Amino acid sequence: MDSHRITTAGISAEVSARGAELVSLRDAAGNEMLWQAGPEWPRHAPVLFPTVGRLRDDTLRHDGKSYALGQHGFARDSQFEWSERSPDRVVLRLADSPETRQSFPFPFRLELIYAVADDVLTVTTRVTNPGDGPLPCGVGAHPAFRWPLMTGISKDDHVVAFETQETGSARSVVGGLLGKDKPLPFDGRQLKLSESLFAKDALVMPGVASRQVTFSALDTAGDSAASLTVAWNGFKDLGIWSKPGGAPFICIEPWYGMASDVDWDGEFLEKPGILVLPAGETRDFQWSVRF
Question: Do 22 and 123 contact (CB within 8 A), yes or no?
Answer without folding.
Answer: yes
